Every structure is written in structure tokens, then in C-alpha cells.
Amino acid sequence: MATGSGEDRSRATVRRGAPPSSSSWSEQYARRRAVEARYPSVFHVPLARKPSEVLFRYLGERDRLLDVGAGPGRTGERVRTRRPHVEIRTLDVDPSTSPDYRSLDEVDGRFECVLLLEVVEHLSAETAFTLLGDLQHVLAPGGRLLVSTPNVFHPSAYFRDMTHRTPIAYDELGGMLDGCGYRVVEMARIYNAPWVARTFRRTLGQPLHRWLGIDFARSIVAVAEAGESEAAGRSEA
Q: Is pTM, for the whole model, over 0.85?
């Protein structure tokens, strides 16, 4: 995750016009309901240990990958270990980092995979919509965007960071992607813990969490591909 203020980061990464359909509450609500039809509650979203576990299901051996908000580049290090032939480029505005790009305007070429890990919660809702829409312009045909954000159903995942500006639930994230013209391919809840703890949470502990409405997974990951959104398909029907 990149550091620094959300608005500073948004000015550095956003390059195009008004956010798509973000001002219509009713439209966003309809998109959220469409996501809920697929995942009726956060507990219906499958578990994964790390965002990289989800990433490697879609990343080819020689793909180009752009990590937006790359920070110190730890994700890139993991990718190089598993996929040594992947071409990795990074984007960040934190002056303490040394990315390949400081702005989307500087990005050259298209990428089969774009990462946006733990960034959107630092932005206003309008800016997050705009950024998601702009990232389509750097995705290669058939490419995929992987977005993560803190799970608001976890008691402290969102509120423990003073730089967080916008809490985004799993259904809202899916609805935002749909509104920006993406098709959500997969969603996952991220919970990385030793085997004993994972087994307990997934078996004996999960019924209690469901009853309380409090999740143990710390973040949500969505994988989306550019193209016709579910909302567009509904409007044409």
C-alpha cells in the first residue's frame, strides 16, 4: 500500500474526466444488489490466504503486470519468485519509494494484469470511481484488474488506519467495478493465519461470526475484467 494522503495520491494517478455514474445512489444500489444475488452475505465470499494466491490464478508466465500504489514493492518480489518472466512495472507517489511511474499519464503500453491493493479506501468515493475507470486504459484486451480493500465486517480492519477515508463493503466494491464497465470474475476474503487457527475459524468459529455479523477475514479482493458490465447488460435487456 502506498503512503501519503489520499487526495495527493489521487491527483497523481487519475488523468481523465468525471467518475462514471458515481453520483446516482439508485444506480449504485442496484449494482450492489446484483452482487448480493451472487454473494448474499460477506460469509458467502470464498476464503483465500493472500491476495497473491488469487493473483497467481490469473497471471500468465510472461504477462505484463502494473502495480498501482506499489509502496516498497513487496508484491512484485513475490511475483518474481513465482513468475520470473513476468514484466513488472510499479506506480506510486510516495517520495520515499522509487517506482517506474508517478502518474498514469506516464504509463507506456498495456498490461495483462493491474494491481490496486489497499488503495481505494484512502480516496474519496468520487476519486475511487474515477481511478477504477481510468485503469481500463492501461489494461490489455482480456486483461484483469485485481483490487483489494479492508473488510468493513472485520472490527478493526478499516478503522485502525487514520488515512482511510472511504469504507467499501464487498458488495459496494463489486458495484463500483460494475459501474465502471468491468465484469467481476471472482471475489475472495483474505485470512492468513496458522493452520490450526484457520481450521477453527472455518469450522467451529464461523457459525458464531455469522450470528454476530462480524467477519474474521481482514480484507476483500475482487478480480474484474474490462468489458460489458452486468449493469449495461441489464439496461439493454
A: no
